[in-house]
Amino acid sequence: MRLVILGGGESGVGTAILGKKKGYEVFVSDFGKIKGNYKEVLIINGIAWEEEKHTEDLILNADVVMKSPGIPDKSPIVKKLIEKVIPVLSEIEFAAPFTDATIIGITGSNGKTTTTMLTHHLLKSAGLNVGLGGNIGKSFAWQVADNKYDSYVLELSSFQLDGILNFKPHIAIITNISPDHLDRYDYKYENYIDAKFRITMNQTEDDYLIYDADDEAITQWFKTHTTKAKLIPFSLTKTFSEGAYIKNNKMEISINHEEFTMDTEHIALEGKHNMKNAMAATSVAKLMQIRKSTIRESLSNFQGVEHRLEKVLKIQNVQYINDSKATNVNATFFALDSMNTPTVWIVGGVDKGNDYNELMSLVREKVKAIICLGVDNKKIIDVFGNVVDIMIEVSTMNDAVKMAQRLSEKGDTVLLSPACASFDLFENYEDRGKQFKQAVKNL
């Protein structure tokens, strides 16, 4: 069996190691450059590879292909594979059959990283032997090759779910759905929604789907589709006999005739959206039979995720917050919604077809100044130019932070929440967030 892997990054190299271990003839092909550390791993393991090209003769003779999530279906080599009816899978689909571990899969437009990290924290704190992977951390396939874990918490993007056929998590979570990455889905929102719901397509009556019952796209989907999985909804406004909700500042969860309650003020994460993330993660913990005292302790000591509403420093009584991970409007909506003080907002980058009008009421209410940090800020200026008194364009993070310090006064917040991808000025959102934190520390 010949396994060809497109993309020599984390998921590609992890799949190569697993494939080799399972007796496949493995070849890795990357159209770009392969990073030095990954090349070393391939060489040490005796795995054939090429970079900066796709040699068709070495790829189109595959029995199965694993495509890294960043490569679109529209790329010429993928089209040729599909024409030849060679199966093109995601890493998750390839690796899952090689493990008996319990799989918890988490998807959604926003909140999935926080929910994944919190779920992993809850299970690990309870002493479970649990791995963390998917879109974050070490490649799932690589971990399956090492065969150390009894369960996995996987963050799954729509791109990863596009490449599944039989994959099914025992517990699935859909945190929410809002328009994102529509360039990959022919600019059709319904295609993107369907991609997210692939997480439940193979689930049976013995499996669970945890979902946001306040989310319009999710509730609409359920009107015309079904899943065999047992449904566990969570909500900020509704109550359920089976599910999770907030009532009188208490998180209440009822699953399989078992109750769990906790005062929301004791939960370390702040903001309404984080209450949803906490309900989703706690629902998993309940399904995995974790003790109430352990759940309460873990929810109260969770540190949060880097670059997601991360408090950096307070300088002259101004709080600086790094929300670089907010790469779409919906994520920034959550961030602005959780601001309780006048805010200097740093925004901008590569726009993925954003509609900034959704933020209008929050900007009117909370934002005193906008700093545009992007190569092309025209759209942001057009929308908010008449709403905010001060709008300034800058082209470096240092200038953005210095300007924010000048515009802010005691009791204000400076919020980096770009609502855009970062590729115009930075390597990625992590690089953008790190530069922000460094610039704040240099003030």
TrEMBL record:
It comes from Flavobacterium algoritolerans. ATP binds at residues 108-114. Pathway: Cell wall biogenesis; peptidoglycan biosynthesis. Pfam families: Mur_ligase_C (PF02875), Mur_ligase_M (PF08245), MurD_N (PF21377). Its EC number is 6.3.2.9. InterPro entries: Mur-like_cat_sf, Mur_ligase_C, Mur_ligase_C_dom_sf, Mur_ligase_cen, MurD. Residues 307-420 form the Mur ligase C-terminal domain. The keyword Metal-binding does not apply. This is UDP-N-acetylmuramoylalanine--D-glutamate ligase. It catalyses: UDP-N-acetyl-alpha-D-muramoyl-L-alanine + D-glutamate + ATP = UDP-N-acetyl-alpha-D-muramoyl-L-alanyl-D-glutamate + ADP + phosphate + H(+). Keywords: ATP-binding, Cell cycle, Cell division, Cell shape, Cell wall biogenesis/degradation, Cytoplasm, Ligase, Nucleotide-binding, Peptidoglycan synthesis. Cell wall formation. Catalyzes the addition of glutamate to the nucleotide precursor UDP-N-acetylmuramoyl-L-alanine (UMA). Residues 106-284 form the Mur ligase central domain. One of its GO terms (molecular function) is UDP-N-acetylmuramoylalanine-D-glutamate ligase activity. It is found in: Cytoplasm. It is an enzyme of class 6 (ligase). The gene is murD. Belongs to the MurCDEF family. It comes from the Bacteria.
